[in-house]
Amino acid sequence: MIYLASASPRRQELLRQLGVEFDVMPSNIHEVRAAGESPAQYVARVAGDKARRVAQWVRERGLPAHPVLGADTEVVIDGEILGKPENAAHGMDMLRRLAGRTHEVLSAVCVWHREKEYTALSTSRVTFRPLTPAEIEQYWKTGEPRDKAGAYAIQGRAAAFIAKLEGSYSGVMGLPLYELDEILRKIGTDGI
């Protein structure tokens, strides 16, 4: 049993897929990149901030001391974190930037357990095929990219855009399961 410090349906789906029991406790932290913070430092810090916030709530409420899982995923191109699209123009601009190019997806997990923090980072490289303006507009109109980092979902229609993936499919989806399993084994659970 773990507490999931996220409301992400994708993270919940991945945990369910593997039979991990969890309670959803979104951290609702404000995610802002600090000056001078690299994309990798940023995703690791945000994952840790989420886990620590929920661990504090668990202590304050006297809930059972299960591990707390925080995670963050960001799409990075040309050293810039794209984030989630603010509107249609922003989202379609992101897709234009990704089209025909390779970008990184950084996905960090942090498990807070017994006053200790365990963090791991997954780095994947994703190559999009070239996209036409009509394809980008049509994809945006599906609604799928609206709340996704980099304005796409690898597990959805955007799978057809991906010419090559080097790294973790589940990491690009939002929760790197290999890294999570390694942490759970380290803290003495049976892993996934």
UniProtKB/TrEMBL annotation:
The active site is at D72. It comes from the Bacteria. Keywords: Cytoplasm, Hydrolase, Nucleotide metabolism. Transmembrane segments: none annotated. CDD domains: Maf. Its cofactor is a divalent metal cation. It is an enzyme of class 3 (hydrolase). One of its GO terms (molecular function) is dTTP diphosphatase activity. The keyword Ribonucleoprotein does not apply. InterPro entries: ITPase-like_fam, Maf-like. Its main location: cytoplasm. It is found in: Cytoplasm. Nucleoside triphosphate pyrophosphatase that hydrolyzes dTTP and UTP. May have a dual role in cell division arrest and in preventing the incorporation of modified nucleotides into cellular nucleic acids. The record marks R10, T73, Q155 as: Important for substrate specificity. One of its GO terms (cellular component) is cytoplasm. One of its GO terms (biological process) is nucleotide metabolic process. Pfam families: Maf (PF02545). Signal peptide: none annotated. Its EC number is 3.6.1.9. This is dTTP/UTP pyrophosphatase.
